[in-house]
Amino acid sequence: MAFRSTILGILICLLAAVAVAQTSATPDTRDIVDRMLRAQQENKARVRPFTVKRGYLLMDKQDQQKAHVVANITVLPPNSKQYNIESSSGGMGEKVLRDVLSKETETPRDAQRQELSLGNYDFQLLGEETLDGRRCFLLSMNPRREEKDLLRGKLWIDAESYNIRRVEGTPAKNPSWWLHDLHILMSFTEVDGMWLRTFTHAVANVRFKGKYVMESRDLEYRFTQQTASRSRHNPAILAGSAINP
After folding, report:
1. Torsion over CA of 165, 53, 151 and 110, rounded to 10 degrees?
2. pLDDT the model gives residue 22
3. What's the whole-model pTM score?
4. How far is it, in rounded angstroms, from Cα 234 to Cα 77?
5. Cβ(180)–Cβ(155) under 8 Å?
6. Which fold has domain 27-238?
């Protein structure tokens, strides 16, 4: 009887282990992408009016600051963005950052051709990685067209929420004769129930000038009366930490 009880106990443990393995098994690429797209749609529905204070920094190959801009950007869903510049410095480098800010806040003429979707990209599951303490699915992203607004690279998808935590890659088409070897990293974070891009790191070689680095980082969020007027600082800034590219 004791022997039979032992065997039964082992079988129960094995069945439990199999059940756990099945529930934690990695879904296939299409399932991951479908859940990611659903999470994106849900996030769009949760976006409400807010203002973000964002800092822009331009550095040269010696990591010396060339220009700095701080702007307040007001987001009015679904597609409107307005901004005013709080402070700036840096001559020609300042103009570059102002152009970046203007590009970020303009309404895309054809937003569907730029978004992460099955119409614009082929995806392939590469494996899993831990990012900021979170289990993530690592996918390759290959543009279906050679366009400057599409990236060839990788994305990290949270294995629990299916939100995109990081995107990293190079444009499918060089955006300018002046730039080459452009590499972009974007990180995303939850902010008051909304999933937002909060950090961008871009490196490029500029013809006749050498390597330049541009970073933008969200510093503070302010919410309108519609969202219980309050301010919230980026916790990464308060902690004195940066997202490592």
Report:
1. 120
2. 44
3. 0.80
4. 21
5. no
6. outer membrane lipoprotein receptor (LolB), chain A (2.50.20)
